[in-house]
Design goal:
Elements lengths: L2 H14 L3 H7 L10 H17 L6 H19 L1
Helix pairs in contact: 1-4, 2-3, 3-4
């Protein structure tokens, strides 16, 4: 799964069960087509916020996808 497939999968799960808090945190940080490095940093911050603030509201599978997405963005930003 690529980065956007992971994020779309997680967002779809949250929408299905109306998990509003993680959606409220992530969606403003989620760019449709990130072009600039700054947009990736904003997305990374949003993902980290969801991971830290919503751990009781996300499933282990969703957490695994979040961690994978965080790692993927961090690796891309290091290059």
């Amino acid at each position: 799964m690529n980065l956007y497939q992971k994020l779309d999968w997680v967002i779809e799960r949250w929408c299905e069960r109306k998990a509003l808090r993680p959606l409220r945190i992530l969606l403003p940080a989620y760019p449709s087509q990130p072009i600039h490095t700054d947009q990736f940093y904003i997305l990374l911050e949003g993902l980290r916020d969801v991971k830290g603030l919503c751990h009781n509201e996300i499933s282990p599978d969703e957490l695994a996808h979040l961690i994978s997405a965080i790692n993927e963005i961090e690796d891309a930003l290091k290059k």
